[in-house]
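Hi support team,

I'm opening this ticket because the web form for multi-chain structure prediction keeps timing out on my end. I have pasted the exact lines I submitted so you can reproduce it. The total is 693 residues across two entries, so I didn't expect it to be a heavy job. Is there a limit I'm missing, or should I split the entries? Thanks in advance, R.K.
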Amino acid sequence: MNVLVVGLNHKVADVDVREKLAFNGPKLEEGLKRFRDVPEVLEAVILSTCNRVELYANVKDTHKASENIKSFLSEFHGLNRSSLDSGLYIYEGVAGARHIFRVASSLDSMVVGEPQILGQLKAAFELALNKKTTGILLNKLMKKAISVAKRVRTETRIAENAVSISFAAVELAKKIFTDLSKRIFMLLGAGEMAELAAKHLISSGVNEVLVSNRTYDRACDLAQEFNGKPVKFEEFLNEMFRADIVICSTGAPSYIVSKSQMQKVMKERKQRQVFIIDISVPRNIDPEINDLDNVYLYNVDDLQGVVDANVFERKKEAEKAEGIIDEELETFLKWQTTLDSVPTIVSLREKAEEIKKEELEKLFHKMPGLGEKEAEAIKYMATALMNKLIHPPTAALKEDSEDKDILVATIRKLYGIDGKKE
Amino acid sequence: MGSLPFELAFVFYFAATIVSFTELFKESKATSRIMLLLTGAGFLIHTVSIIYRYVAAGHIPITNTHEATSFFAWCIVLIFFLLQLRYGVNLLSSFIMPCVFALMLLSSILPSDIKPLSPILQSHWLGVHTVFAFLSNAAFALAFGIGLMYLVQEHYVKSKHLGGLFERLPSLQTLDDINYRLISWGFPLLTLAMITGALWAQSALGSYWNWDPRETISLVTWLIYAIILHTRLVAGWRGKRAAILSILAFIIILAAFFGIKMFRIGYHVFR
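Hello R.K., no limit was hit. The queue was backed up. Here is the completed structure from your submission:
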């Protein structure tokens, strides 16, 4: 019984790779079911967002299981097996649990502290619960991850970072334009950070919102949410001249706006200032357009740089968050070791011995006149009784079975072994 | 005694310049209020000094370099106040007051005695023509200051190093708008100055245009500002380009103004 994480994120894989491995739409349920059926996999959760695809499992043998999971991925997505070998990261046991805690706490996000990942993780867990692909270990682990994330958010100021990046974008916009309420804002694509920044901008009161997305339906949804106008993706360049502020996060593998295209846009808008924020990784807008007059292009790193005036402070907050994760990891590991049968057998016996000893002492105290022979007999009977009572659970624990973790948990609960001593 | 109001105004402007200079390093509402009060007091006293000289000489006091630079400084402060009333541009004084101070300093070291007016200048055109000319140049001086502010702010935003004055300087669009506004005030004033000048030349010298160096330079600056306005409206030359052009144009004006005085050429030289 072991935690296993197999996956990739924005740090190790480009968007075109992530796209190929993504479990989106109906693929997710189907994938989850088949993932659960992979040999050696006992429990399964799939987290698939635009920045990461991660498979969480409880497995018997980590090595065999990770091989099987890779085969499953290449088969399911119709990819070359060898191409997967290099691109994926694999975390086992403690490292796996730590990774999941870090993801949930948004320490592993592109924009550290962005809040949406926790919601996505919750949704992934809920789906797994619905489809009954999880069991005792992942249930505990995912719940723990969610509570760790909440602790990190309330006890550190890490969440302020994402907010401050959107805030920095708004502040910059105010230093470029006189009056935001007369400006037209365009959102290209979607995504955690882009939507957060868009919300900040819109709440500071822009005049009009244009939304474009590769999927027109999504554009319509977002347009409705932001009270704006959807624009077909093929036509966004024709509409771009109207936009004073553009946030771009399309996940396209290459530039969608080149320098010469931007020159044309600038000519159409009579060289009026334009502020473009490119949140995409890889970048979607040719960085060279920042050389054009009256074009101000910022990417996430630039905004981070603006915010980073206080790097030291941020580092401290991240360290604090890692500290919380270490702490919670320890309690989780303590709990996990209790799931092993050997320590359970030992503590079951200890518990029984303890009860026997207590009861015998009480009895001898009440009846001080007992002779040595009688006392021996009583002791013998108590031991026999105890042994007979704990034999069946012990035998069951020693057996090799699929659901041993459930059995262990059940026995610990029935016999009250999970000491409230903690 | 006649020069006392001028000297007092000079002292007030000097104090205002120092205060506005400290504003660059430390923001405070109090200092900008003190700066405005000092400048305002200086301006009132300066006005008194100009009226005093007007009365003493019997004509508008811009007929020697001392008076002309002093009057130019007065026009700049006037437009500065109009601009502050309308837009309240943060830190503008830090960019403009040093210019005012420099002009006043120059004026104070130049001979200030009132001499009889040469016959050619004895005309009711004198007041009209020169006031238009000086006001237009003062508007261009402020466009120069605003242009400098634009370049500083644009440098912060473009280079993505948002240090220093970034927080306190107005937005790029605001600065660009004001720059445009100033030039579109200054340009018609300059045009009026040239028309009245031509009419005056016609009545005094018998010809509208004499290729006097001052006239030539005026024509050149008129063309430059016409180009600035034209390219903005037609080709969208705004922002950085407009700022650079308005800075260059004003440097040409200054060079011409003092160049002509220094080499004493043409009939615009009054000793």
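A quick check on our side: Chain B has a mean pLDDT of 87. Let us know if the file doesn't open in your viewer.
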